[in-house]
Amino acid sequence: MLIKLVPHGGFAPCDFEAVEVTADIRRGPSVLTYRAIGEGPLMLPPAAPERTDGLWRYTCFELFVKPKGGEGYFEFNFSPSTQWAAYQFDGYRAGMRDLPLAVPRIEPFEDGVHVSLDLGGLPEGEWRVAITAVIEAVDADITYWSAAHAPGKPDFHADAGFVIEVPA
Fold first, then answer.
1. Cα(first)–Cα(last) distance of the chain, in Å?
2. Rounded to whole angstroms, how far apart are CA atoms 60 and 154?
3. Are 148 and 163 in contact (CB under 8 A)?
4. Which listed CATH number (2.60.40.1190, 1.10.10.10, 3.40.50.300, 3.40.50.11030) goes with 2-166?
5. Labelling 166: which of 22, 24, 27, 107 has CA 20 to 30 A away?
């Protein structure tokens, strides 16, 4: 499926026309391709593909998965540097801890990344998903993109962003 992310209204979208994500999300092997269309995002240089905190401070592509009917959810961060992070939360920004995950394959390209990861360890049942991106422009402006935004400041953890349904 093709998902067109929209910029958060409180931040100018800079020189970016759009952020598009092609996603095949399922239990097991999943694939996402993120593209920032426009002048091009500021991309961190290649690094070892290892778990790293704080990736959202720069250009970072994200996936949030919330089992339907529950409060807990999972957050995945993918950097163009090939660094990544995965977290589990018990509730809204509560009980955060590292989620064990096989190293995702992140392939950077000029204006985005192609990500392959295994979501087979997540709970069964229907999921609600949020697909998001933090884009840093070459002039250092940061923009926040999501399929849907909650009112107020950018908050990818807010329930309002979990608008994509993944069937059981």
1. 17
2. 14
3. yes
4. 2.60.40.1190
5. 107
Q: What is the pLDDT of residues 65-120, one digit of tens each?
A: 999 999 999 999 999 999 999 999 999 999 999 999 999 999 999 889 999 999 99
Residue whose entry in the numeric block shows the structure tokens 């940061």: 142
For residue 57, report the phi and psi dihedrals to the nearest 5 degrees.
-75, -15
Whole-number Å distance between alpha carbons of 71 and 151: 20
DSSP E strand boundaries for the chain: 2-7, 16-24, 29-38, 60-67, 73-78, 84-89, 97-98, 105-109, 112-118, 127-136, 142-146, 164-166
CB-based contact 6:149 (threshold 8 Å): yes
User: Is the Cβ–Cβ distance between 64 and 148 less than 8 Å?
Assistant: no
pTM, rounded to two decimals: 0.95
Torsion sign over Cα 143, 145, 150, 156: negative
